[in-house]
Amino acid sequence: MSLLEIDRLSVGVPGDGTDTELVHELTLGLDSGQTLCVVGESGSGKTVTALSVIRLLEFVTPVRTTGEVRLDDVDLTGLNPNVMRTYRGHRIGMVFQEAMDSLNPAQRVGVQLVEAYASGRRDKRAQARALDLLREVGFTDPERVADLYPHQMSGGMQQRVMIAMALMAGPDLLLADEPTTALDVTTQAEILRLFRDVQREHRMACVFITHDMGVAAEIADRIAVMYAGRLVEVGPAAEILASPRHRYTRALVECVPQVGVRRTGGLPSIPGSVPAATEVLPGCRFAPRCAESSDRCHTEEPPLIALDNGVEAACWSPGSGPVALPDPRVLHSDTPKYALGQPETHARAAETLLEIKDVRRTFLTRGKGGSPFRRRARMNAVDGVSLDIRPGEFFGLVGESGSGKTTLGQLVAALDDPTEGTIVAAGQRHTARGLEGDARAFRRAVQLVFQDPQSSLDPRHTIGRIVAEPLRELTDLRGADLRRRVEQLLDEVGLPKTIADRLPSQISGGQRQRVAIARALAPRPKLIVADEPTSALDVSVQGQVMNLLLDLRREHGLGFLFITHNLSLILSVADRVGVMKDGRLIEVGTPDRIAAAPEHEYTRTLLAANPGIVPAAGSHE
Amino acid sequence: TPATKSADEAGPPVRGGNLTVRLAQDPGSLDTVRNTNAGTTYVGHEVFEQLVTIDAGYQPQPVLAESYKKSDDGLGFTFTLRKGIVFSDGTPLRAADAAASLRYWVENGSYAGSLKPVLKEISAPDEQTVQVDLTAPFNLVALVATSHGTGIRKEADIKAAGPTGIGRDNAIGTGPYKVKSWTPGQEIVLERNDKYQAPPGKSSGYAGAKNAYLDTITYKIVADSDAVLNGLQTGLFDVAEPSHDQYDQVKRDSTLKIGVEGAANIQYVALNHNAGSIFSKPEAREAMNLIVDKKAVMASQGVPDLVSASNGAFAAQSNKAMYSDAAKSQWDQSDPQRAKELFAAAGLKPDQTVRMITTDEFPQFKDALVIIQDALKKIGVNATIDSYDFATLMGRKNTQPDSWDVLALMDDANPPVPSYSDNVQGLDNMGYPRDKLAPLLTKYNAARTPEEQKAAIDDIQKFTAANLPTITLYSAKSYVAFSAKVRGYDGWGMEFADVWLAR
Amino acid sequence: MTGRRNRKLLVVGGLLGLITLLVLVLPLLLPDPDAPDPVNRLLSPSFEHPMGTDKYGRDLFARWASAGRVSIGMTLLITVCAATLGTFIGLVAGYFTRAGTVIMRVVDAWMAFPSIILAIVFAVVVGPGMLSELLAVTIIFTPYTARVIRSRVLGLTTRAYVKAARVAGMGPWKTLAVHVLPNTLPLAVVQCVLLSAGAMLIDGSLSFLGLGISPPTATWGNMVSDGRTYLHDHPTMVLFPGLTIALFVFLLNLAGSGLRTLVDPRARQLADRRA
Amino acid sequence: MAVVVLRRLRDLVVVLFVVGTVLFFLLRSIPGDPAQVLLGTKADPAQLDRLRRDLGLTGPLHEQYLTWLGNVLTGDFGTSIKYQLPVPQMILDHLAPTLTLAVLGIVISFLLTVLIVTWATVSPGNRVARFVGRAAQFGLALPEFWLALLAIYLFALTLGWFPTSGYTPFFEDPPTAIAQLALPLAVLVIGQTAFLTITMEESVLGELSRSYLRTARAKGVHERRIMVRHVLPNSMLPVLTTAGLNFASLIGGVVVIESIFVIPGLGTMLLGAVYARDFPLIQGGVMFVAFLFVLVNLLVDLAYALVDPKVRVS
Ligand SMILES: Nc1ncnc2c1ncn2[C@@H]1O[C@H](COP(=O)(O)OP(=O)(O)OP(=O)(O)O)[C@@H](O)[C@H]1O
Ligand SMILES: Nc1ncnc2c1ncn2[C@@H]1O[C@H](COP(=O)(O)OP(=O)(O)OP(=O)(O)O)[C@@H](O)[C@H]1O
Ligand SMILES: [Mg+2]
Ligand SMILES: [Mg+2]
Ligand code: NI
Q: What is the dihedral of CA A243, A247, A249, A251, to 10 degrees?
């Protein structure tokens, strides 16, 4: 008998007229002491599943649940709310993604910890346990930490507190919903380690939700893959990673970028996007995106059936064997189709496209919160950075959160003025006094792509109007010419012409980012600053967008300043990579060199912390 | 006829108690010369005494003066003071105090405006005598008696006067009451003046011996006129002057008594004679006179007990000495059709509006204008009404003389001399021929016999009717509402020095 | 859920429209609201005079209807002015951060000014009437609108599409007009409706203090004020116009919060809780 | 902290300066002046001019302004023209009634609001709780002056439970003082409570959608405890701000109530001062109200600092 048994669980929320089924007939089991990773793209129903197990979803929205969720043979779905409450915390603990939001900002964390113990009696035992747990999650001075307020702690510290809090009442089952997604790679690595230790120590079963196969590979005993509200594959972690069966799982595994693997020719991706929960698809929900789909896939929904090695998958044409992961050792010699990585071959090699010299940007910070009682402090978001980018070069900038990457990008795009130093982009000087010379010429030469495709498009403008905007402002194109150019641009980024009349809310995230890219291309720039253009996107779509950027670079000889925190990604595509920390550019080099021989200690940490699927020995012939 | 005190009110007078009186505004000071606020007058009459004042029949009676004498040529007046009078702070009254008070009054008082040109000197030849010398005959005693500003003060207090007059702290008089406390904006409390020396004679009007039965009189300052009735009904005040609008309600309330004041007002609308106004044209003035249905305006007050026709006269009909019906026939007319033609003749353009202004101080001003506005509308003339606070009205009238056509106000229906009346003098002297009026006024002042005076008044009245600086609407009396326990009071002039409270 | 909410909004809007229609049409059928008739002064409500007559004998029902025209008209006018000015200031203060700090300082001082006193001073300067009331109330409400709009604009300017417009070479004023303003409009509209509720209340207060529109024009506020004198004997003179204001403002508030639920998801939850 | 307070005080000075200056020129531009009010209709121009000169109202405007500014900077706020009393004393004399009304009004409303909302929050779905929301929305729509008149009609004129108007300092005659305050206070409290209730409801709602509640639930904390320990304290802050703002605006805004209930407060004083064109008194009074406004907001901020750990610790 398993500790947790989910049996044909369906979760629906009432929509306009009919219920929308967010999770459909999900069946899963988990033994005590085991870690189950639930993976899947955004919107696949991972969070809904977890919240349904602990029955927290019903506080947010009216839900209709069918099926059973059994914990030690007790059906949780049938419990009355008061009994269910005694299960929360004591039998099932939960850790959430946004640690900052998940803690009460107005209470000391000590108090919040104590509240989690035996219905919050503030006795000595509870306090002692709180301090013990704080020590266990890695705080050397638990007394001090217990006295802090959430906002006085870093994201990593908060997440540790959250874990300690989930442990306070000693649950048998721990649900963790993407507890590391908001964290830096380095911090993420620590928290993952902590998770493993804690779980082993307390002999808990753990459901760990992530959308990152790499993370799953690090800590899972078993992996469950969800897609569009369905469980599509479940099995032992090693099996799933080494030899995924469902076509979706295989594609997902393939998409994970790997350190040391050059992929300038193109990244793997899955075409299309995840269907909305309301979308009616008679067959396999993955079929429209599946390269191997047959007619049957489109008409009949595949059941979850047991395959070999304890793996179950819901696929009419499951694959087998390892996914063709490129071998890092081999692919060092991979030569890109176009030798843009070697500037010598380029005609304009001598000139520089972008020259950043001793640039500093100082902010007068006013602390957090909306209160007037803020102490001003100076903080150097960018602290003396010098950097050259050649025409047509793809320069990758990585660094942990808050290291100043975005700030630098904004300086280059002249959305902000440096406090000190000069930036020369496409022949235009930019100093503390602002842009010198023709601002329009500068805008024509330098464009920017933002991280969040959703917020970078005005929700009230049609796609056509959005793409036309820079053309109207920066070029003389009008009327039919303008329309033709817009169509051409949409075509260039692989979007149908018809999309021009739609609003941003009517297209998918990946399409939105393409629109943003089309807009950036419109004035035929020489340099594009791309600030984490793919980090808001799912892995599968991330590949599509990256490929588009790489294609465009090849076709137009565009220079890129590509900002990301994804080290594996940037190492696989960039010509040169710079690592930022605390506003300084601490290391610049080719991806090969950085991957092979990182000079800076911090770079080494980054590399080590990078989660990834290390191709299992022997899985590669 | 002015009411006389009825002694038949049950029981003998009782000493003691406090009377609460409502005042609309804090007068700020008791300088009855420079401060024209009604409250100043009310309180001033309890605190100060004049050389001569008026009795209930509006006849001059000596108070602080033992006697007064007019010289044979009519150019000199001698007032002899009563002996042994002291101010409430114990200082004896001297002739110098009286002379200084009169001089201060002539210098600063608006009432004395007509006296100024003929005044030669005011002197105090000895401790008991005040001498006033004139250059031309003038009805001095009547003016002194009627003017609120002639209350006698200490010379020292007058010397200490600041820019806005004699301060609150220097309000020392010889009257039956003295100021006990004064909380600005809230209340003024008077208490009995133990050093008061009553003049001979029975109490009548402001004159005669006052008994000062009340220990204290508290004047509560309540601006809101609608709170007055509620206050009376719930016992917050003993005495107040509600508005005409509230008359019916007061009358119906059995717990309240009504006293009609002897004094009356003439309600009028002044016509702007300046070139900027249509009323610079005689035709337009004539038209206005014809369009205003005075009877309707009077009726709209809804207080037939309190109003009476003015007949175009600048004084109330009860004021025998001043009333003249020389303008009656003109006043009685009402002929909208003719008015329309006259307006056209005056050059009133179809899109031109008649701009009427007034103040919110008393609702009856607006009432009159509303009726007039409706009458004008009926003959196709647009009229607007703007109602301002008093200060704005005055500022508007004086500094923007071209911004208005008609102004509704009221004036004392018992003017001491004709020249004092707005209905005679006009509100502005720009278009109105005051120079032609002046000889008529001189004639009045020089009159030796009542017949001569009457003839002069008739002439003045005719002049006014011909030039129409104002159109009088009706004459109205104010009334006082007081609780049943207030005794010995008939509503005469908010004067409480002889009033007592029933136990 | 959504259907019911919309239906409710429709009902509220319908009622508002009905009252407006009533005051637009009724005066055409009723006697002249300004014509005095001294004989019939101060009548109690009867079949002939549903609300009675006032001290000039004017029919109070006719006055109520024509007052509605003025009150609703004034409210609209004030709302448009205050919302336009406030939105403009809010836009500028929110978008141009440096100027914004200065502007907000001024707005603070502006709010510190006791509003009724301000209204009085205006009534005195310009003379009581439409213009002064318009000025005074506009001035009272503008800073509040400006604040609301500004905070919204501050939120919008962090949106990448505003930055994207700059990257696309668009000037600040054009960006304001093309990207910021349209996205503030829903909020501005909501603000307008809520503001009109406030405007109607303050219009009442001013008329009540005698600082509003000049006689004989009736407004609901000055009808209450005029009826005050007769509170004891004719309480209906105060009751009816006041009740109308209360009802109208209540409906406006409902409409405002109803509209807000369409614009602001948080408000939607509140509405659901109340439902 | 001290630095911050100092900075806010500097802002205060700026606000006062702006208010004072604007008002000065506004007042001089309005028709009518104190001389006319004092001397009445029949004064002759010479008398008026003399009085104006004596009051310092002649001469170029900018000179008058500089004189005024100089005086204010030396702490001399002038003398009321009408009452011949120093302006600060006049303000002090009229402060008590207004302050009593405003403070009691806000405090009672605040407490009522917290009670009502707490009750409605702890028992959601309750019919009465729903009614509260409705009632608050309706309360918000009631014109204050009208409510005051109805209250007078009903409770004073018809039932005779309370006096119609008046004000007595509390320590002079407590029963009378309470009786007189009851109606105006009730009117004030109804409006304020409606407003604060709506503010707090929204605030509670904002808190209800915050993720930390999910955490608390995941810990197995009882719903009631979640409301009482987490939601309500955290949603109090915006109400505090609103209450502070309201308090400040009440000081200058109770004119209507003061006038209907004949309460000799600051509003009445200012109204009277405007009518009398008592320039120094208006000037001083309005600046004082503005001062209170800013001061109360500063105090609210300080209170914030005590309550909100985010501010307190950093
Ligand atoms: N309260 C809710 N009401 C209605 N729909 C919801 C609700 N919560 C989630 N959904 C929908 O349910 C689907 C699954 O959401 P869920 O949050 O479980 O996805 P997820 O796999 O956790 O994605 P992510 O990786 O983005 O967290 C989505 O389409 C989402 O829009
Ligand atoms: N407008 C600003 N005012 C004050 N501080 C700022 C401002 N913008 C950025 N900062 C600070 O500058 C530092 C660098 O921020 P930046 O956004 O450049 O980091 P980043 O490397 O892009 O981080 P992330 O990976 O989280 O996007 C941060 O500490 C941030 O708080
Ligand atoms: Mg999720
Ligand atoms: Mg960034
Ligand atoms: Ni398939």
A: 100
Predicted-assembly ipTM surpassing the 0.90 threshold: no
Instruction: Supply the pLDDT for residue A332.
Output: 40
Q: Given B245, B384, B389, which is nearest C214 (Cβ)?
A: B384
At D2 the pLDDT is: 64
Q: How many domains is chain D partitioned into structurally?
A: 2
**Better pLDDT: D32 or A380:** A380
The residue contributing the CA closest to ligand 2 atom 6 is A363
Does residue A337 surpass a pLDDT of 50? no
Q: Answer whether the bond into residue D60 is a cis peptide, omega within 30°.
A: no
| Residue numbers of the domain that contains C215 | 2-18+59-274
Whether C105 is covered by a domain: the verdict is yes
Which of D85, D117, D150 is the last residue before a domain boundary? Answer: D85
DSSP state of A493: T
Do A177 and A166 fall into the same domain?
no
Coil, strand, or helix at residue B146? Answer: helix
Question: Could you give the CA distance from residue A122 to residue A594 in angstroms, rounded to a whole number?
Answer: 52
What count of Cα atoms within 13 Å lies in the side-chain half-sphere of residue D284?
28
Domain identity same for A288 and A415: no
Residues A305 and A423 grouped into a single domain = no
The pLDDT assigned to A409 comes to 92
Q: Are residues A393 and A428 in the same domain?
A: yes
Q: Map residue C60 onto helix, strand or coil.
A: helix
Q: pLDDT category, B230, cuts 50, 70, 90?
A: confident
| Contact of chains C and A by CB distance (3 or more pairs under 8 angstroms) | yes
Whether A149 and A208 map to the same domain: the answer is no
* DSSP per residue, A63-122: -EEEEEEEETTEEGGGS-HHHHHHHBTTTEEEE-S-HHHHS-TTS-HHHHHHHTSGGG--
Q: CA–CA separation, A327 vs A493, rounded Å?
A: 30
Hey, which of A38, A44, A210 would you mutate to test ligand 1's pocket, going by the most ligand atoms within 8 Å of its Cβ?
A: A44
**For B155-192, how does the pLDDT look when each residue is reduced to its tens digit (9 = 90+)?**
998 888 887 788 888 889 999 999 999 988 888 999 99
Domain containing residue D109: 88-311
What is the tens place of the pLDDT at every residue in B92-110? Answer: 999 999 999 999 988 887 6
For residues D72 and D98, membership in a common domain is answered with no
User: By three-state DSSP, how is residue C215 classified?
Assistant: coil
The answer to whether the beta carbons of residues A231 and A26 sit under 8 Å apart is: yes
Counting the structural domains of chain A, the total is: 3
Q: What is the mean pLDDT of residues A123-142?
A: 87
Please report whether residue C211 resides in a domain.
yes
Closest residue of chain A to D309, computed from CA coordinates = A106
Assign A371 a pLDDT band (cuts: 50, 70, 90).
very low
Cβ-based neighbours of C184, under 8 Å, separated by 6 or more: C87, C90, C91, C149, C152, C153, C156
- Between chains, do B229 and C55 touch, taking CB under 8 Å as contact? no
C7 part of a folded domain: yes
Structure tokens at D65: 């302004």
Instruction: Give the pLDDT confidence of A75-105 residue by residue, as tens digits.
Output: 988 888 888 888 888 889 999 888 778 888 8
Calculate how close chain C gets to D203, using CA atoms only, in Å: 10
Does residue C41 form part of some domain?
Answer: no
User: Could you tell me the CATH number of the domain that includes residue D306?
Assistant: 1.10.3720.10
Residue that terminates a domain, selected from A170, A192, A212: A170
Q: Is the separation of the CB atoms in B259 and B245 below 8 Å?
A: no
Backbone angles phi, psi at B280, to 5 degrees: -70, -15
Neighbours of chain D (3+ CB pairs under 8 A): A, B, C
The CATH number of whichever domain residue C173 belongs to comes to 1.10.3720.10
Report CA(A401)–ligand 2 centroid distance (Å).
8
Tell me which residue in B233, B366, B392 faces C124 most closely, judged by beta carbons: B392
Last residue of a domain, one of D85, D110, D141: D85
| Cβ-based contacts of D38 with chain B (< 8 Å) | 34-36, 164-165
Please tell me which chains touch B, using 3 or more CB pairs under 8 Å as the contact test.
C, D
